[in-house]
User: What shape does this take?
Amino acid sequence: MRAFGFLSFGHYGGRPEQGGLSARQMLHDALDISVGADELGVNGAYFRVHHFATQSASPMPLLSAVAARTQRIEVGTGVIDMRYENPLYMAEEAAALDLIADGRVALGVSRGSPEPAERGWEAFGYTGSTDPRGADIAREKFPQFLAAIRGEPMARAAAQPYGAPVSPGAGLHIEPQSPGLDTRIWWGAGSRESAEDVGRQGLNLMSSTLLTEATGASFADLQAEQIDRYREAFRDAGHTRAPRVSVSRSVFPVITEQDRRLFGLRPGDGADQIGIIDGHRSTFGRTFVGEPDQLIEELRADAAVQSADTLMLTIPSQAGVELNLHILESFATHVAPALGWRPNTEGPVQGDPISA
Assistant: This one.
């Protein structure tokens, strides 16, 4: 690990007059947390995407606002649900965002996670899936999105093209184009096999605090194997650039008595959990709470954290700006330097070269 960012689910809800967080306040808090994190040297601001829920949904307006108000921090998602997306419109939005951000985008995408709606993507107009989870639709859309941001022709010019200096029948690509954006696309993989597929495609790997498999190995070791298999597949497919790899953890440094009261572990929080999600027996990563020396020791012993270039800290975004910046500052000051952290003032995060 040499970089860390925050991952926000963007929760809101409840009546504001009773202390609940409105969607407006959630978005403004997200902006303020991002600005404060940028000033602290934090490397990334990433947001989850969930539909039909009181959580952050359409990410491009928020990411554009974050990019416009910050200088160095990477802005991205973890992850966009491709089942709900028009791949060409998303390509236009992603390219515009990347230009606003001056190349600071880290766009995580995937099939998406379990959701409250029954086949909710169909309400958005995307029908025809034969998979009860809609994975077939997501995987059909993604290559089209990738081709679009790479500048491949997506349409043909009319016999009498209007408003563009092109020849009749010429191939047309989406506009704008942001060169290099395709190297900043990540796929959220939930298993070792899916990580191998990510590697073969030459994408960056985003792995969270959940894996949709359980082998008896610890979560960290299972995830470290996932990363190893990803890098091997990336190399064997002939890709030569240095890819990025991120993992997510819930980490709460205990610096003050208030921290101890707020972040005290409940029974079971300090250990991996096994459960069923989306029909799969799955492994859920533990929560890390403790004084800095303890956290440093535990995170150094976490094989996946050590193997990844970027650690995403899941934050309780609904708890407000002040508390979340306190968590990030505590980690940046007391924990991250001992793990090899390089603040955003030292430049963009680089991936690890793939060894022969």
User: Anything to note?
Assistant: The chain has one domain: 3-154+172-346. The mean pLDDT is 91.
